[in-house]
Amino acid sequence: MNITAIDSVENMAPETFRKQYYEPRKPLIIKGLSRQWPAREKWTWDYFKSIAGHQTVGVYNNERAGAGTLVNGADDYIRFGDYLDMIQQGPVTLRIFLFNIFQHAPGIVDDFTWPDHLAKGFLKKYPMLFVGGAGSVAHMHYDIDLSHIFHTQFIGRKRVLLLENRQSPYIYRMPFTVESAASFVNWHQELDTEQFPALRYARGYTAILEHGDTLFMPGGYWHHMEYIDSGFAMSLRALDQTLTGKLNGLYHIVGLRGMNNLLIKLAPQWWYHYKRKMAHEKARRALEAINNE
User: Fold this and answer.
1) Which of 112, 134, 251, 270 has its CA 20 to 30 A from that of 174?
2) Above 80 in pLDDT, residue 111?
3) Whole-angstrom distance between the N-terminal and C-terminal Cα of the chain?
4) Are strands 158-163 and 128-132 parallel, antiparallel or unpaired?
5) Strand 28-30 relative to strand 8-9: parallel, antiparallel, unpaired?
């Protein structure tokens, strides 16, 4: 892969951000965006345990989804407080995603400020928490609603790999999914380019997010995240600014996800292997096009 570091700034004027990153759909790390948030120091393991430790949450392991796994199906359910205790004690390859802790403790929305000066269309009922133990992995995918994401890291470090959506053929996107057939685990050390040769031509961005860093991830960007340390992050989502983008997001949520889940139920083994076969076929055609240039 051809990898470039994600641009990083302390702060940026709104008009500059919109012109250079938001409208061109280019990722950016803004280190100072959360500088004045009470959450930056207030949000700790003990604090979250005190306000939502009794809630039951779905947890996800590092295994790739099997033939019968529905989209977003959790691997287990445990108390949030027990999970937080677990990941503080040592490496635990379990993570939580899309946890709306704000439904259970609505007062904590006062601990941060929505970046309305940078983007419009924020889904203010759905700020989401993402938590992971050291060594846990969010495998390569893109968010199904195609929203723009402002992803702020708290505690610990996380390695991220981003790719534009048009890189899909080179990273083996499976039909009717937002997932890649290729594995990107420890991608910075080694990639399986023997089984997935098109990966050599993929172009991406990378960075290590640290406490307080906010990553702007444009809608539709592929992302793979590995927790170097136990930590958590909050994602603020903003709808695509274009009508086409909004309609595409709706199609993904209703049509694409629904068809994938239906086929998983009707013919799990056939669909599991067919998706991977088609991902390799599209990658092969993409490589042929490169060779014919």
Assistant:
1) 134
2) yes
3) 19
4) unpaired
5) parallel
* 231, containing H or E segment: strand 231-238
Q: How far apart are CA 99 and CA 52, in angstroms?
A: 11
The structure tokens listed for 62 are 């590092």
How many Cα neighbours within 13 Å face the side chain of 59? Answer: 22
Residue 70: pLDDT over 70:
no
Q: Which two tokens stand for residue 11?
A: 């702060």
SS3 89: helix
pLDDT of residue 18: 97
Tell me 37's DSSP state. Answer: -
Q: Tell me the pTM.
A: 0.92
Distance CA 49, CA 197 (A): 45
**Residue 226's beta-bridge partner residues?**
137, 159
Query: In this structure, which amino acid lies at residue 189?
Result: Q
Separation between Cα atoms, residue 75 and residue 77, nearest integer Å? 7
